[in-house]
What does this fold into?
Amino acid sequence: MKRIFFVFLLAFGCFFAANAQKNYNSAIGLRLGYPVSVSYKQFISEPAAIEVFAGFRSWEFYSWFNVGAVYQHHFDIASVEGLNWYVGGGASAYFWNYKDGFGFDDDASDASFAILGNIGLDYKFANAPVNLSLDWMPTFFINGYGNGFGGAYGGLAARYTLK
It folds into this structure.
């Protein structure tokens, strides 16, 4: 059911394609969310962009490092200049490290691969080289730790735009 919802959401975005009005070519900055990540976004055509990211998360008993990329198709929101919404998808790899907190010798490492969806809002300030994005990345882990659907990913990105 969740896969069908994701496919429907992606198809919905593609069917209502419009010419996006982008105000920058690329941007670099931070994604504040789950996990905190470094983000680089590059437009490859007028409505299409690729965002690559690398993040780190650490808790008491485990931590992970992830790298990934998503393709985003942008659509103009005509009523607000500089505001677009986007939809897309991509993939990510996660590298996990577990530490047993109970004194047992159960420390381990693992790797997971995931398929990502992506839907969000993108805003470029008119008089400043700043871009903000707010998105949700529904994530489906193919293997390893977290196998299955994990929908809590995404966040707020603040980036410096490059022309």
